Amino acid sequence: MAKVTQIFDCLIAGGGYVGLSTAVAIKASAPHLNVMLIDAAPKEAVNKDERASAIAAAASRMLQQLGVWENLLSQSQPIHDMIVTDSRTSDPVRPVFLTFGEVPDQSSPSSDDQPFAHMVPNKALITALRHKASELKIELVHGQSVSGFETGEAHTVVKLSNATTVNTRLLVAADGVRSRLRDEAGIKTVRWDYNQMGIVTTVAHEYPHNGRAEEHFLPGGPFATLPLPPASDGTNRCSLVWTEPTQNAQRLMASDEFTFELELEKRFGHKLGEIELAGPRKAFPLGLTLARDFVRPRFALVGDAAHGIHPIAGQGLNLGFKDAAALAQTIVEADRLGLDIGSQTILERYERWRRFDTVQMGIVTDVLNRLFSNDIGPLRLLRTVGLGLVDRMPQLKQAFINQAAGRSPNNPSLLNGEAI
Fold first, then answer.
1. Integer Cα distance of 14 and 155 in angstroms
2. 365 with 222: CB under 8 angstroms?
C-alpha cells in the first residue's frame, strides 16, 4: 500500500443516511474523536433523488438531539394515522381491519400526542445530515470509495480508490445491502429472494390526504400510500411503495404512463379523487439479507450492510438509525473509559445490542410478506380474524403502534431523545 497520509479514530464507508447519522452521532457526542466519511457518490447526486422516507418518532427524537431535525420539520409531513386493509385488487370495497393513531410523547407526559412517523424528502434529509457533518468538522470525501483494507493490531490501513491510504482505529461499513466491505471482511450472510419488486413513485391527487397513510395487502404484495407535504404549487401528493411479483413489476415498469396509471388506479381507488404520476418510476428487487456477524476486529456493519428486509413494515431505514445510535453509544462510552474503540470486545457489545432486534424484524417482515402476499382462502380468513382481533385488543394494538414508532425499552439513548 501507498504511504499513510492521515490518521482517524473512525472511518465510515458509505455516505447515505445511516453512514452520515453514524458519523454525526459519534462526533456530536465526542467532539475530540477524528471522524472521516467516504461517500462514493458525487456531492451533487443528492439533487436527483425525489423520493421520501418514513422517519419513525424515535428516529426523529435522535435527529432532534443531534441538531438535525429543526432543519427538516418544516419540510416533513406528519403521519397522523394509518389504516390497514386486506382485499383483492378487484374488490369494490376494502374493509378497514386495523387502524393506528398518534402516540404519547414520552419526553413530556403532559404534552399532546405526537405522530408515530414523519415523511421526509430524501433530498432534505441527506442535505441536513451533510450540513451537520460539515458543521461538526467531520472529514467528508465525495466521489471516492474504499478499495481495500488491512487490519492490524492497533489500527486498520484503509486504501481509497484514488490510491490514498489512511489509518483508522475503526472501519464502519455502511455501503448497502450488497456490501463489498462485508464480503472482504469474511462475514457471511443469510439471504433469499422474494421474487418481488418494489415500485416507488410519487402520485398527485385531487383531495388532501389529511396526514393519513394506508397499507393495502393485495395478492401481489402490499400497496402503501404515504402522505407527503404539498408541492410548491399546492398540489396534494403522496409517496407510493407498490410491491408486485417480479414479472408483473417489470411489465408495469416497461409500460407507458397511461397504462401504468390505469393499473395504479385499480389499486389506489378514487378516495382522493383524480390521480396522476408526479415523479419518475423506480423499481428494485426485494429480498432478505441478514449478516451472520455484525463485527470483526476494528470493523463494524451498520444499516443495510448488516440487514436488508422487506419494506412491508417500513422499518428498514429506522433499523439503520438504531444501528447508528447503538454503535455511537458503544464507541463513545468505551472512549470515555479509556478503552480501545476498535477492539473486538467493545464491538461485540454493539453486536449483542443490535443482532436480536434486526433478526427479529427480518423474521417478522418475512412472515408478514408470506402470509399476506397471496389469495389463499384459509390464510385470507386467518388474516381477517387476526387483524380484527389486534384492532380490538388495546395492549396488543399499542405494541404494534410502539413498533411503528420505533419505541423499545432497549433503545439507545439518542432514540429516547437523550444525549449519550
1. 20
2. no
The string of pLDDT tens digits covering residues 89-140 is 777 667 777 787 766 565 554 445 788 899 999 999 999 999 999 999 999 9
Sorted by sequence, the CB contacts under 8 Å of residue 44 that are 6+ apart come out as none
- Nearest CA among 17, 49, 50, 51 for reference residue 241: 51
- CATH code of the domain covering residue 297: 3.50.50.60
Query: Quick check: 147 and 161 in contact, CB under 8 A?
Result: yes
Domain annotation covers residue 78? yes
Measured distance CA(47)–CA(122) in Å, rounded: 9
Is the Cβ–Cβ distance between 35 and 139 less than 8 Å? yes
- 149 close to 139: Cβ distance less than 8 angstroms: no
In a domain, 393, yes or no: yes
Which string of DSSP letters, residue by residue, matches 261-293?
Answer: HHHHHHHH-STT-SEEE-S--EEEEEEEEEES-
Task: Classify the phi-psi angles of 234: left when phi > 0, otherwise alpha if psi is within -120 to 50, otherwise beta.
Answer: left
Structurally, the chain folds into a number of domains equal to: 1
- Which grid coordinates belong to 408? 423499545
Cβ atoms of residues 132 and 67 within 8 Å = yes
